[in-house]
Amino acid sequence: MRHMDNGLETKVAFGDFMQAFEAFKDANDERLGQIESRMSADVVTSDKVERINRAIDETKSRLDEITLKARRPRLTGTDEAAPAAREHKQAFETYVRKGETAGLFDIEAKAMSIGSNPDGGFLVPAELETEIGRRLSAASPIRAIAGVRQVSAAVYKKPFATTGFATGWVGETAARPETASPTLAELQFPAMELYAMPAATQALLDDSAVNLDQWIAEEVQQVFADQESTAFVTGNGVNRPKGFLDYTKVADASWTWGSTGYIASGVAGAFPAANPSDKLIDLVYALKSGYRQNAHWVVNRKTQGVIRKFKDVDGNYLWQPAASADGKAMLLNFPIAESEDMPDIATDSYALSFGDFGRGYLIVDRVGVRVLRDPYSAKPYVLFYTTKRVGGGIQNFEAIKLMKFGVS
After folding, report:
1. Looking at residue 79, what is its pLDDT?
2. Is the separation of the CB atoms in 216 and 371 below 8 Å?
3. Alpha-carbon gap, residue 269 to 346, rounded angstroms
4. How far apart are the C-alpha atoms of 140 and 161, rounded to whole Å?
5. Residue 78 DSSP code
6. Domains of the chain (ranges plus CATH)?
7. What does DSSP assign to residue 2?
8. φ, ψ for residue 202, nearest 5 deg
9. Helices assigned H by DSSP within 185-326
10. Residues in Cβ contact with 89 at an 8 Å cutoff, skipping those fewer than 6 apart
11. How far apart are CA 56 and CA 49, in angstroms?
């Protein structure tokens, strides 16, 4: 049996997704009609809506997986690389396949490498590091929308003015009065160590047809992405990044710098029964206009399933599917970043976030991914202890708002 090519597979999956959404709209319209005429929906109809809702999520997950696979470029280009890059790649491959370290020791001595690690290991070639970063951006929902900065130090420090800089209007020839000095403070983003440890058989390493760069990138991608994504949302800042849900939260009317503002849904553990979409609009306009143009919703799949049923006053669904296979679903014309690390809707949970994460949340990557080859700990397998250093936290507290599913 021949497998369909990736382009055809993507088209089929996208067609299934759109078909499921149309079926969902028909079933949900039937449910809403029953509520209006009978004051309650038929159990069979409600079950049908939930079943199709789950099918939409499952189809979208399959479509995302196919699209992500299609976007993975092959690690090639060694013939055109600079001599130093070719030397590094060849020495690294010899180290991974056979454990020979002489070539890499020479290269790191020449480069006076700053990426030392107490556990040892060697820096991967720049091409492989770039590929790992590219894969993480595609697989990690928060990394895909946040600001990212590469640094060579262990801590990235960012000064900011707590009082704003004094300004004013003056005439062309008028004297310029002295302005008040701004009060400055500093945000710090330490880079913490993240690791993965893929295992290989010696037979795989001896097989010259196996692209080891590709293999390492694929093996560490999902582990790194899962750990990063959780930390960027709920991390407590201890040996990991600080997630945007871990900061002090205050009602938006009382918001001050250093905390995240929230809008209450008005109902414990739910949207209001009447006009629930009004709360979504309130959250959109809690964000200043300068941040709204690049804003994203961040929700998990279960919360998205609840919102998918909402309509506007004209009967149009607020949630709209992506226009293409690699696009994003939209809510009130803003894209949705689906993160399973967001909490479910529950009493006083913060299950919905809206903001310009590119300006609001900063991810700090320390340059250098290291690999330590370990042929001893799990014989007959060879372990590859792979580490990268990453930090994160809110850099602009105005740019991210939350919805609290509580009375106030």
Report:
1. 46
2. yes
3. 4
4. 31
5. G
6. 120-163+179-300+339-408 (3.30.2400.10)
7. P
8. -65, -30
9. 202-206, 212-234, 277-286, 289-292, 301-307
10. 78, 81, 125, 127, 213
11. 11
Single-letter amino acid, residue 278:
D
* pLDDT-flagged residues of the chain (< 50): 1-3, 75-80, 114-115
Pairing of strands 260-264, 296-299: unpaired
- Give the predicted TM-score (pTM) of the model: 0.79
What sign has the CA pseudo-torsion 283, 285, 291, 297? positive
Q: Which residues pair with 189 in a beta bridge?
A: 156
Strands (DSSP E) contained in 283-341 are: 296-299, 319-320, 330-331, 334-338
CB 387 within 8 A of CB 374: no
Length of the chain measured in residues: 408
Within 10 Å of residue 54's Cβ, how many Cβ atoms? 14
H or E element at residue 106 = helix 102-111
321, two tokens: 């599917």
CA distances from 309 to 22, 29, 50, 271 (A): 12, 9, 10, 12
pLDDT reported for residue 77? 47
| Torsion, CA 371, CA 213, CA 146, CA 61, rounded to 10 | -120
The residues near 180 (Cβ < 8 Å, ≥ 6 apart) are 166
pLDDT in tens, 134-169: 899 888 999 999 999 999 888 999 887 666 556 778
Q: How far apart are CA 16 and CA 32, in angstroms?
A: 24
Pair 122, 95: CB distance under 8 Å:
yes
Beta-carbon count within 10 A of 387 CB: 20
